Amino acid sequence: MSKTTLAIIAGVSAAAGSAATAALYASRSQRKDSPSPTVTSTPTSTYPSPSPPAPLPIPLRKDLTPPVNPTGVFQYGFPGPVNDLHPTLSTTSSFDRRTRNPAWVAEHITSASINANNADRRHSVFVEDETVPEKFRAKLHDYFRSGYDRGHQVPAADAKWSQDALDKTFLLTNMCPQ
Fold it and tell me: Which of 108, 123, 141, 152 is catalytic?
């Protein structure tokens, strides 16, 4: 292959990667907090009315706003082959249907996410990823008596900030035989 052909292929690949990154950032919606309107009413009768019941406090869950943003890796460019892009709460990965393994996995770690301990590994189980078509997905029986273990690409201990995030690290799209 000539140098010109390689340069053309590299240019087209770079353009496709930047287009995919631009499309991903364009599709992300940014939440904007708007002030809630305040409603006031004036009494129309002279009779005393019963006071309205006090509102019940809504417990705030700590895991509503994740302390990590694994899709932030795309601000540095797109990291390679795009087969099945698979974003979760704690990871972003590209699943290779041919090998039934992730081509790459990215995670975002912060001191808040590492220091949080809101999840327990004993409540998580390995599961097949339903977002990958059944024909191409890794199955639990692929590992049964194969001599291989399921190896996390993103360690489960890095996602203890939320039970949901910890459970997503047990998807088979985050596993490779080891």
Answer: 152
Q: Which residues lie closer than 8 Å to 147 by C-beta, 6 or more apart?
A: none
Question: What residues contact residue 176 under an 8 Å CB cut-off, 6+ apart?
Answer: 101, 102, 151, 153
Per-residue model confidence (pLDDT) at position 11: 65
d(CA 36, CA 32): 12
Active site residue 152: yes
CA distances from 59 to 11, 63, 160 (A): 52, 12, 20
Average pLDDT, the chain: 75
Quick one: tokens of 144?
């049964």
Q: Which two tokens stand for residue 43?
A: 């009494």
Q: Compute the distance between CA of residue 178 and CA of residue 175 in angstroms, rounded to an integer.
A: 9
Please choose, from the candidates 66, 93, 118, the residue with its C-alpha nearest in 3D space to the C-alpha of residue 174: 93
Q: Which position has the higher pLDDT, 30 or 106?
A: 106
Question: Cα separation of 130 and 107, whole Å?
Answer: 21
Nearest to residue 137, comparing CAs of 95, 94, 87, 83?
A: 95
